Amino acid sequence: IRRDLIARNGVDPKRICVIGEGVDLLEFNPDHDGSAFRREFGVASDEVLFGLVAMIRPEKGHLVFLAAAEQVLAHHPKARFAIVGCGTGTGELERQLRVYLAQRQGSHDRGPIFMSGFRSDAPHVMAALDVLVVPSVAEAQSLVAPQAFATGKPVIASRVGGLPELVRDGENGLLVAPNNPAELASAMRALLEKPAWRRELGQRGLAFASTFLRLEDRMEESVAVYREVLGPRRPRVRGALRQRLRRTRRRSLHALSLLAV
Known about the structure:
- The chain is of the alpha/beta class.
- The chain is 51% helix and 10% strand.
- A six-stranded parallel β-sheet has the order 3-2-1-4-5-6, sandwiched between helices.
- The longest helix has 26 residues, at 235-260.
- The chain is globular.
């Protein structure tokens, strides 16, 4: 993001402060139980479940995930793959995925590859997964990778955008080339076939989230930036902000009075 602002928009680097993603460790943690989600879609406790949790749109890499899943299933038919989320825009990509799965296995919500649709129980979904997969072909930052780490799950992610800043290859997960189903399938198989390594990566991810990704720390960093911008050295900015807030308040009161009438 910072590089693009400088290269494409000509922003002075001194005027940019990047604050990365954080995660609420009270909301996402290893104490959550994901068994209900697994039962809902027929995933046994001894089956390894890989999940892609994202809005369904081309840059998120759903087609790469499907292609890699097919390669893994050729060697490990008991592996399971969840696509969690719903489509954006016209929803064309989501329809394509559902048609593909219906043709492949009849009922797409009970086969080895299934789509759950939108879920409001994200912490329990994350707890149900054994590995989170982020196969994006383009990505700035990731919300779900920190959530997986905080739940004690390893992450396989594409080497694009800000993902390598979160996923340390071989430390808390694995990095693969974007748009490369064969390399993604190889990483999946490695974690499927080595459960001890999978658990070790998950524990390292948890430690990483607890140390570096706390939401409270990110909020403090954000507040510090606001304080610097609105501090005593910038009185005209503060005055302009106050005027803008007063105008917004007057407009809101005027709108409420019209609604009351």
